[in-house]
Specification:
The complex is a heterodimer of chains A (about 475) and B (about 230). Chain A has about 475 residues and is of the alpha+beta class. Chain A has 13 helices and twelve strands. Chain A has four domains: about 110 residues, no CATH class; about 110 residues, GAF domain (Beta-Lactamase, 2-Layer Sandwich), CATH 3.30.450.40; about 80 residues, Orthogonal Bundle (Helix Hairpins); about 150 residues, 2-Layer Sandwich (Heat Shock Protein 90). In chain B, about 40% of the residues are buried. Classes of the chains: A alpha+beta (about 475), B alpha/beta (about 230).
């Protein structure tokens, strides 16, 4: 749409003023003070120049034409006619017009620049206020609505709409409801293109921080430049990102605390259970060590003893698990003879083997490993215990260890039923127990998780290879000790 | 069997009960205490041959009680604790305990440990010199006295036994397991941390510069060695 001619009251007043000045000069020189034509022309020129500088091109052109007509009619011979006899006088006339045009153009430009810089300064001040307020904003809770309110207040916009993609909500602020629909805002955020409607003076821009847009911002009004609008968008994005990060951190902290509390309670509970187990174990083992005990009683007492051990084992696992989960376990690593750690665990096995065939292929010349003796022992124990429980009593086991360049690999091979492919990845997960074993074999489902966490803490690897029906091989690796170190 | 006097310290009445019954049946003379304070009092008033000490007790607790008993007596102390981390074991040994048994324990195992702790060894005395002279440090095995620069230094029985075993096998690297079996008993051999603690304590007592030992030397991968002065 084209702008209409500016015929507002101010312009009319200025036009009358301009004509008045020209009229006054004409009357003054024609009636009051008679001078030569050059002086008159210079006076007119001065008047046109002043009008052009003060008011603008339109007023100056009207004044220039009026001055030319007056100069021609009243002062140029033949006086009293609009005829111009001397061609030199055309020069004088065109001088008025050109002066008016150039002077007004220059002054308009200066004025425009002044206005523009004033506007920019204001915009900068507002942006500064906006960013300062954003920094002071409490980033807990509904930040998006507060940011929207802030934009409307600081930039004095009649209507602001902000679409937050993460919550899929539109926030609006300002005295007038901005005529932009939620779908438009959503589309802008998705397509990442700027939308502008001159009729309603609305602009919608996508908001992003490098990546895909996280929302869109719509404003009504023309007082905000596009540059400033993008600055607002960026500041908004940063604030939202900050709020989001803080939110995530708070949630992670809460989760960590709850996990820690759980672990502490589990740990305390397990210790409480171990206290009554102590006199039970002491009493039953004391009775079992009597030489003149009858076989029936001995068998019954043995059951009590074994079950006490099982309960104790489960509690120990629970304590280990809770320590590992709370991140409380610290490795005391030093160069360790792996063969000795393995031997110690095999010694512990004792009667648990129940006559099962266990082949040990561990060379005595195995290099030292950088490990925590106690924890690495737990890993080997868990492997052995796992194999004993989940494979048939008649199937043989083979424990192997071999040294590589930088690590030593320990593996335990069984000839059990094997582990189906989809379950292989999950056997190390907490509380996960194989589908077929869940009901038949008692266990906590924590053993292999404990083993995995310990191996990880050693920066080693743990894995299982298996073909259903052909047994499984559980392996882990642990880094070798540096050569020059000693115990 | 024996009439050694044992003090059982535990805040759990059922544990005191079972220990009392079992140990008395084995011929020991048993007295009980419910906490660290009571234990200290009893140790001051009566003579005991062994203390079985719980760690987790109200009041001063077992660790502190162990330290206080050790500061006034050489009596063997065996810790009984539910916690079984190496850190706890080392802390207890540092506090002066001779041995550490994890609860729940089997009675035959505990009895073996008690016997080991009570054993005051004539450890192959035949080859041991009566007096060992290490420059400023003089050890008299007959009088059971150790003097450094003329002043008496007190060794706990286990420290003394360890030093005596070294003295009877000077200038040889002794493997960890062999040392443990000789000083603690045949059931031992894996408790390398015991040796670390006790060797450190011995070094503090007899070495001129404990951080750069001149006599009690570490043999990497193997064990320890007593190096006699070359003069």
């Amino acid at each position: 749409m084209k702008n209409r001619l500016p015929l507002q009251p101010v312009i009319v007043m200025r036009l009358l003023g301009a004509l008045g000045i020209i009229g006054a000069i004409t009357v003054f020189y024609f009636r009051v003070f008679s001078v030569n034509n050059v002086t008159v022309a210079l006076s007119f020129l001065l008047a046109v120049l002043v009008i052009a500088a003060r008011w603008g091109l339109f007023e100056a052109l009207v004044a220039a034409v009026a001055a030319m007509l007056c100069f021609n009619f009243f002062f140029l011979p033949p006086v009293g006619t609009f005829t111009i006899a001397d061609p030199q006088n055309w020069v004088a006339l065109s001088a008025f017009v050109v002066t008016a045009a150039i002077a007004s153009h220059l002054s308009t430009r200066v004025r425009k620049q002044a206005l523009e810089s004033a506007r920019r300064q204001q915009e900068m001040e507002r942006l500064y206020t906006f960013s300062r307020n954003l920094l002071l904003l409490e980033v807990h809770g509904p930040v998006a609505q507060e940011i929207t309110n802030l934009i409307s207040q600081v930039f004095e916009l009649p209507g602001v709409a902000f679409f937050d993609r993460s919550s899929d909500r539109v926030h609006r602020a300002g005295p007038h409801d901005i005529p932009v629909e939620a779908t438009k805002l959503r589309d802008t955020a998705v397509q990442a293109t700027v939308f502008h409607d001159a009729a309603t003076k609305t602009t919608v821009i996508p908001i992003s921080l490098g990546g895909p847009p996280i929302g869109s911002l719509g404003i009504q009004g023309t007082q905000v430049s596009e540059t400033a609008l993008h600055a607002i968008g960026n500041l908004t994005a940063i604030t939202l990102e900050r709020a989001h990060a803080q939110d995530v951190a708070t949630r992670a902290e809460a989760a960590r605390q709850s996990e820690e509390l759980k672990s502490t309670m589990l740990d305390a509970l397990a210790h409480e259970f171990k206290t009554p187990l102590t006199p039970i174990k002491a009493a039953v083992t004391s009775m079992l060590s009597d030489s003149d005990i009858n076989p029936t009683r001995q068998e019954l007492l043995r059951i009590v003893d074994e079950e006490t051990d099982r309960l104790n084992f489960m509690l120990t696992e629970a304590i280990q698990m809770s320590r590992i989960e709370a991140g409380q376990f610290r490795l005391h690593r030093s160069p360790q003879p792996l063969s000795k750690i393995i031997q110690a665990q095999l010694d512990k096995l004792g009667e648990d083997l129940e006559g099962r065939k266990l082949t040990v292929e561990v060379p005595q010349s195995l290099p030292y490993v950088s490990a925590d003796r106690e924890f690495l022992g737990v890993v080997i124990w868990q492997f052995l215990n796992n194999a004993l429980r989940y494979t048939p009593p008649s199937s043989p086991l083979t424990l192997r260890a071999c040294a590589g360049e930088a690590e030593v690999i320990v593996s335990l091979e069984d000839c059990g039923p094997g582990i189906p492919e989809p379950e292989q990845r999950r056997v190390f997960d907490k509380f996960y127990r194989g589908k077929d074993q869940r009901e038949r074999i008692p266990g906590t489902g924590m053993g292999l998780t404990i083993a995995r966490e310990i191996v990880r803490a050693h920066r080693g690897r743990i894995w299982v290879e298996s073909k259903p029906g052909k047994g499984a091989t559980f392996s882990f690796s642990v880094p070798r000790a540096p050569k020059e170190s000693g115990l | 069997m024996s009439s050694a006097r044992i003090l059982v310290v535990d805040d759990e009445p059922q544990i005191r009960r079972v220990m009392l019954t079992t140990l008395v049946a084995r011929g020991y003379v048993v007295s009980t205490a419910r906490n660290g304070e009571e234990a200290l009092e009893k140790v001051r008033e009566e003579r005991f041959d062994l203390v079985l000490l719980d760690i987790n007790m109200p009041g001063i607790g077992g660790m502190e009680a162990c330290r206080l008993i050790r500061s006034q007596s050489d009596i063997p102390i065996v810790i009984l604790s539910i916690r079984n981390t190496e850190k706890e074991k080392v802390e207890a040994l540092d506090a002066g305990a001779d041995d550490y048994v994890t609860k729940p324990f089997s009675m035959p195992e505990l009895l073996a440990r008690i016997r080991a702790a009570l054993r005051r060894g004539p450890l192959s005395t035949s080859s041991t010199a009566e007096v060992l002279n290490l420059g400023q440090t003089v050890i008299n095995f007959v009088a059971r006295r150790v003097t450094v620069n003329g002043t008496d230094v007190r060794l706990t029985p286990k420290e003394y036994d360890l030093l005596r075993y070294f003295a009877s096998n000077p200038d040889v690297a002794i493997p960890h397991a062999k040392l443990l079996q000789a000083v603690w008993g045949p059931d031992y051999g894996e408790e390398v941390e015991y040796l670390r603690v006790f060797i450190n304590q011995l070094r503090k007592k007899i070495e001129p510069d404990p951080s750069h030992p001149a006599y009690l030397l570490t043999e990497p991968w193997v064990g320890y060695r007593l190096s006699l002065p070359k003069d």
